[in-house]
Write a structure and sequence with these properties.
Elements lengths: L4 E5 L3 H13 L3 E5 L2 H10 L4 E5 L7 H10 L7 E6 L4 H9 L4 E4 L4 H27 L11 H13 L6 E4 L6 H10 L8 E5 H9 L3 H10 L4 E5 L6 H13 L1 E4 L2 E4 L3 E6 L3 H6 L5 H7 L3 E3 L10 H15 L9 H9 L5 H15 L6 H16 L10 H19 L4 H8 L3 H11 L8
Parallel strand pairs: 1-2, 1-3, 3-4, 4-5, 6-11, 6-12, 7-8, 8-11
Antiparallel strand pairs: 9-10
Helix pairs in contact: 4-9, 13-15, 14-16
Length: 444
């Protein structure tokens, strides 16, 4: 998305001029205002995409201006980034409650200003695309396929739509955990409220970098709605404590303030959670609450009979949203796909469909599919190319590591199945994996 229109509101002339110069060089259309009155005139003359708004000004403070923008429904079209040299966590919380996109402390970091503006523009672009997609066709959010596993998942979603307890979704990378979480939200009585998705990495980062106000902003957006936390097993203890309070008491503690929030929590895991509890890295009481209703998503190789329906879905998606030419997979081509192991699960299938639609035309033959799968395999194998600069033992270790990592990806981290396919005793396999530094649940 091209840089848009910016309005900089600050009573300090040097700050206004510096920011104007920086963003003009970045290609933005920049307007400035020295006080609240000028700001109102500016946004009513030409509504900006992004407004940098100082909290403390001589005539009207930034929080009051933000309230006016909220009342005039302008925040649907403008991302407001608050700035303050005397900010407190209470001020930041109030700003985010009123709809501010972000809160920056002075002295301002020039790099952070640019990054924050870019993120705001990307958020605007995504919102625009979402609105356009919703207008084009009804959203398909339920699990796709006629297999017993997919029918069971749809029945589970229907049952859980009547409740608000936390849910734990487990499955391999790319198997559709995020998609299932959105389906749970869309079928629940919270469907008209927001669904907010946070990775454990982001959750931890907010706390490690003392960005509690940004975390609170995310949680407030999910109030009355749904919070999806990906890679739940990687949450820090501090993040686990917040999530526990949110689930058990419907509130979070920030500084001296207790904030009440009604949020349904959906946790996503690759299946390592019980092991983390055993190793004392994850709170057992939080795990017990989450696993009251666990949902296991099967790997694609376990329901390949659904591939024809999945192909139709992905083809229609790219034809509708990306204007790609419609192509049909021949029966022999579909048979090859049904016999493939799919280490990357649904995501790998989706990528295959997109690439084949872009690069070819006419009916999709079995030869074309074989060619794509071969190229994809070769690209993955390049990282394991022979390096004659190392001694024979190291070269053998690298080859062995690449072989076992690939097997683990294909089996979804199942050590028993990997041992069976490799012909290695399970105890010896565990020892080899440890020596080679390979995590069975997350082979690289």
């Amino acid at each position: 998305m091209k840089p848009g229109k910016l309005l900089i509101v600050d009573d300090e002339k040097d700050i206004r001029n510096l920011m104007q110069e920086i963003f003009a060089e970045e290609g933005y259309q920049v307007a400035t205002a020295a006080n609240g009155i000028q700001a109102k005139q500016a946004w009513r003359q030409s509504l900006p995409d992004i407004m940098f708004l100082d909290v403390w000004m001589p005539d009207v403070d930034g929080i009051s201006l933000l309230k006016e923008m909220q009342e005039e429904a302008l925040l649907e079209h403008t991302k407001v980034i608050m700035m303050s040299g005397h900010g407190t966590i209470e001020t930041a919380i109030e700003a985010t409650r009123l709809g501010a996109y972000d809160f920056l402390e002075k002295p301002l970091s020039l790099a952070k200003l640019i990054v924050t503006a870019e993120r705001a523009m990307e958020n605007i672009r995504l919102n625009q695309e979402n609105r356009q997609l919703k207008q084009k066709l009804p959203e398909q959010f339920l699990p796709i396929g006629k297999s017993k596993a997919m029918v069971s998942l749809r029945e589970t979603i229907e049952r859980l739509s009547k409740f608000t307890m936390p849910v734990l979704i487990e499955g391999e990378s790319g198997s559709g955990k995020h998609h299932l979480a959105r389906a749970l939200h869309k079928t629940s009585n919270r469907k008209d409220a927001a669904i907010v998705e946070l990775s454990a990495y982001d959750f931890n980062r907010y706390l490690e970098q003392m960005q509690e106000s940004a975390l609170i902003q995310q949680l407030r957006q999910a109030d009355q709605g749904t919070l999806v936390v990906a890679n739940i097993e990687q949450l820090s203890i501090d993040a686990q404590n917040i999530l526990t309070d949110l689930i058990n008491h419907k509130q979070v503690q920030v500084g001296n303030e207790t904030i009440d929030l009604d949020i349904r929590v959906i946790a996503l895991s690759r299946g390592d959670l019980e092991l983390e509890v055993e190793h004392k890295n994850f709170r057992d009481d939080l795990y017990q609450r989450l696993k009251v209703m666990p949902i296991a998503i099967p790997a694609l190789r376990q329901h390949t009979e659904d591939i024809p329906e999945l192909l139709d879905f992905f083809i229609n998606h790219y034809v509708t949203h990306d204007a790609l030419e419609y192509r049909h997979f021949s029966v022999p081509a579909q048979n090859i796909l049904r016999q493939y192991a799919w280490p990357g699960n649904l995501k790998e299938l989706q990528n295959l469909v997109q690439r084949i639609l872009i690069l070819g035309n006419g009916e999709i033959s079995d030869e074309e599919v074989r060619k794509y799968l071969s190229e994809s395999h070769n690209e993955s194998a390049q990282t394991a190319a022979i390096d004659t600069s190392v001694n024979l033992k190291e070269a053998k270790d690298r080859l062995e590591a690449a072989y076992l990592s690939q097997l683990l990806r294909e089996t979804g981290g199942n050590v028993s199945e990997t041992a069976k396919r490799s012909g290695i005793d399970r105890t010896n396999l565990y020892r080899k994996l440890k020596n080679l530094g390979i995590d069975p649940k997350n082979p690289v």
